[in-house]
Design goal:
A: about 240 residues, alpha/beta, four-stranded antiparallel sheet, 9 helices, 10 strands, about 35% helix, B: about 350 residues, ABC transporter involved in vitamin B12 uptake, BtuC
Chain lengths: ~240, ~350
C-alpha cells in the first residue's frame, strides 16, 4: 500500500535563503506525526508547501497516490488536506457557525445541512455555545479552536495543525489533546506542529524534528527526547521534553 | 466571552423587523406594499420622475452591492456596465429594430463577459489598486464609446424615437415606467436574497473576509470573484437598458461617467454594504434628495448633488459604519429587547 503523504526532496527558497532545504518523509494513514523544531526551522513554510499556499522551488509532493506538487491551495483542500493557521484567519464578518459552514460546504452543498454539520463540529471542539457569536467577541484561545473546527468540518484525510494549543488554559489543553488523539481512529491522519511540547510528546505516535530547513531526527517520542542532535538544536531555547 | 456579551449576542439575534439571510421579514413586505402604492397613486409629474429613478437606482445599487458588498470588489467603474447595457439594447433597437426586451438580455450577456474580464485582469490587485483599475477600465470604455461614432453616435449620442409601444418598450405613462423599474428592483432584490442564502453567497463572503482561509476551505477565490463581478455587471447592464428606454437619449458623457460610477458605489455604502436591504435604503434616501435638489436648484447649483453625496457619505462613515441598515438594526434591537 502507498503512503498517504510522500514528500521527496522538497525545497523552497526565498531569494537566496532556503527556508526548506531538502526535506523527505512519508506519513502513513492513521499516523499522528508531531513536527517540532526551533523558531525559523521551516515548519510553517513546510506546511504552506503541503497545503498549496506556496509553490516548492524543487522536490515533489505525492498525496493519496496523486502527484500534487505545485497545486493550488483550494485543490489541496479538495483533495483532502485541511490546515489551521498559526495566526487565526477567521472570516470576520461572519458568525462562528458560518465560519465552520464554509468548510462543511465541501461535502454538504445545502446550507441547512452544512449548518448542522458545522454545529456538530463546534460541539466537538467545545465551541457549541458560541455558534451565533460574532468573531470580534472571541478570545485567542477560542479562535484557535475555531481554526480546528474549520479544518475538521472539511472531513479531511490529512489535517495540518499549527500551534492550536497556544493561548489555551491547562484544562483546555487537556481537552484539545484528547480531541486530537482521537482523530486517527476516525480516519483522519494528523501532522501537528506545537510549542507545548509535553502535549505533543505524550500524544504523537512519531516525532519529526526540523532545523534550518532540514529533518534532523525522525522517530518515536522517547528516542527523540534523548537525541543529541535535537538537544543541540534546541540549545538556548526552553525545552521540556517528555 | 462574558455572560453579558453572550446575552447581547442572543438579543441581537431576535430582530423580527429587520430582514435576515434566508428569510423574508415584515419590513421587506411593508416596503414592497408601499412601493406598489407609490406606483398606483396619482402624483405630480416631477415626483413620478423621482420615483422611477429611485426604483432604478435601488436596483443598480443592489447590482453593485453583489460585487462591492458581498465579494468585497469595490468598483468605481460600474458606469461602464451601465453604458454597455444601455448602448447594446439601444444600438440593436435603433439600427437593427430588435426589440429592447431581447436587446437588454444581449446587453446583460456582454456585461457579464466584460465583468468577468475585469475580474480576471485585476485578479492580483487589492484595495485602492483594484478600485483605481476599475475606474481606469471604465474610462477606456467611455473614450471608446466617444470615438467609435459610427456605432455609438459618438459625442452626439443616440436617440430612441418617442413612439410608445410594447415592442419598442417606450411608454406614454410614467406609471408604466415606475412599474417596470420596480420590477427591476424586485428582481435584483430577489437575486441578492437567493445569493446570500446560497453556498455560492457564502463563498463570496469568505473570499471577501479572508482569501487564504477561503482557499484552505476549498473555495477557488478567482472563480468566486469572477462570478460575482459577472453577475453584478449583468444586472447593472439591464438597468442601463431600462434607463435608455426611459430617458430615450444616450451619450457617453453621462451614461459612462465617473460621476455615475461614484453614485452607484455610494448608494449601497450609505445604505449598508453586504446586506440586501442596505442598497434599497441608500437609494430611498439619496436619490429623491439629489433629484429634488437638482430640479429645484437647477443649473445654479451644478454639482451640488455631489456635495450632498459626499456629505452623506462622511456622516454615514462617522456615525453609522454599518450603513442605514445597520443603524436601523440597532434601533430595532433596542425596541424588541424586553423592557
Amino acid at each position: 500500500m502507498t503512503s498517504l503523504l510522500e514528500v521527496r526532496h522538497l525545497g523552497r527558497a526565498f531569494d537566496a535563503l532556503w527556508a526548506v532545504r531538502d526535506v523527505s518523509f512519508t506519513v502513513e494513514t492513521g499516523e499522528l506525526l508531531g513536527l517540532i523544531g526551533p523558531n525559523g526551522a521551516g515548519k510553517s513554510t513546510l506546511y504552506n508547501l503541503i497545503a498549496g499556499a506556496l509553490k516548492p522551488t524543487r522536490g515533489d509532493i505525492v498525496f493519496d497516490g496523486q502527484r500534487v506538487t505545485g497545486a493550488r491551495a483550494y485543490h489541496m483542500a479538495r483533495a483532502g488536506i485541511a490546515r489551521t493557521f498559526q495566526i487565526p484567519k477567521p472570516y470576520r464578518q461572519l458568525s462562528v457557525v458560518e465560519n465552520v459552514m464554509l468548510s462543511a460546504f465541501r461535502h454538504e452543498p445545502s446550507p441547512a445541512r452544512a449548518r448542522s454539520l458545522a454545529q456538530a463540529t463546534l460541539t466537538d471542539v467545545g465551541l457549541g455555545d458560541y455558534a451565533a457569536a460574532p468573531i470580534a467577541t472571541l478570545t485567542v484561545g477560542l479562535l484557535k479552536r475555531l481554526e480546528v473546527a474549520r479544518a475538521l468540518a472539511l472531513r479531511p484525510k490529512l489535517v495540518l495543525f499549527d500551534e492550536i494549543m497556544a493561548g489555551l488554559t491547562p484544562t483546555e489543553v487537556g481537552v484539545m489533546t484528547r480531541l486530537v488523539a482521537e482523530l486517527p481512529a476516525r480516519g483522519i491522519t494528523v501532522i501537528w506542529v506545537e510549542h507545548v511540547l509535553h502535549a505533543i510528546m505524550k500524544t504523537a505516535s512519531r516525532i519529526m524534528v526540523l532545523n534550518r530547513g532540514e529533518v534532523i531526527a525522525d522517530g518515536a517520542p522517547a528516542a527523540i527526547a534523548r537525541d543529541p542532535a535535537v538537544v543541540k538544536a534546541y540549545l538556548g531555547e526552553e525545552m521540556h521534553l517528555a | 466571552m462574558t455572560a453579558a456579551a453572550l446575552d447581547q449576542v442572543k438579543a441581537s439575534r431576535r430582530l423580527p423587523v429587520m430582514p435576515r439571510r434566508g428569510t423574508v421579514s415584515w419590513f421587506e413586505i411593508a416596503l414592497l406594499v408601499a412601493a406598489l402604492v407609490l406606483v398606483a397613486v396619482e402624483l405630480p409629474q416631477n415626483l413620478r420622475d423621482v420615483i422611477v429613478l429611485t426604483f432604478l437606482f435601488g436596483g443598480l445599487a443592489l447590482a453593485w452591492n453583489i460585487a462591492g458588498g458581498y465579494a468585497g470588489l469595490i468598483s468605481f467603474g460600474h458606469a461602464a456596465f451601465f453604458g454597455i447595457g444601455a448602448y447594446t439594447s439601444t444600438i440593436l433597437f435603433v439600427r437593427a429594430e430588435l426589440t429592447p426586451w431581447i436587446g437588454l438580455w444581449i446587453g446583460a450577456l456582454l456585461c457579464a463577459a466584460a465583468g468577468a474580464l475585469l475580474a480576471i485582469i485585476c485578479a492580483r490587485l487589492r484595495g485602492p489598486f483594484f478600485i483605481l483599475s476599475t475606474l481606469a477600465c471604465a474610462e477606456v470604455v467611455r473614450i471608446g464609446a466617444l470615438n467609435w461614432a459610427s456605432l455609438t453616435g459618438g459625442p452626439e449620442g443616440l436617440s430612441i424615437l418617442p413612439v410608445p409601444g410594447l415592442a419598442s418598450m417606450v411608454f406614454a405613462s410614467k406609471t408604466t415606467y415606475a412599474a417596470l423599474m420596480l420590477a427591476y428592483l424586485v428582481i435584483c432584490y430577489a437575486v441578492t436574497k437567493l445569493l446570500e442564502a446560497s453556498r455560492y453567497g457564502y463563498y463570496l463572503f469568505a473570499v471577501r473576509d479572508d482569501e487564504e482561509a477561503a482557499a484552505a476551505a476549498g473555495v477557488n477565490p478567482l472563480l468566486a470573484r469572477t462570478g460575482a463581478m459577472a453577475l453584478s455587471a449583468a444586472l447593472t447592464g439591464i438597468g442601463g437598458s431600462l434607463f435608455a428606454q426611459y430617458f430615450l437619449y444616450l451619450d457617453p458623457t453621462y451614461v459612462i461617467s465617473p460621476d455615475l460610477s461614484f453614485q452607484l458605489a455610494l448608494l449601497p455604502a450609505v445604505g449598508g454594504l453586504g446586506t440586501a436591504i442596505g442598497p434599497v435604503m441608500g437609494s430611498l434616501l439619496i436619490t429623491p434628495l439629489s433629484e429634488l435638489l437638482r430640479s429645484y436648484l437647477g443649473h445654479a447649483a451644478a454639482g451640488l448633488h455631489l456635495v450632498i453625496y459626499s456629505a452623506a457619505l462622511i456622516v454615514v462613515m462617522l456615525y453609522f459604519p454599518a450603513g442605514l441598515a445597520g443603524a436601523l438594526n440597532r434601533i430595532a434591537a433596542r425596541w424588541t429587547r424586553a423592557p
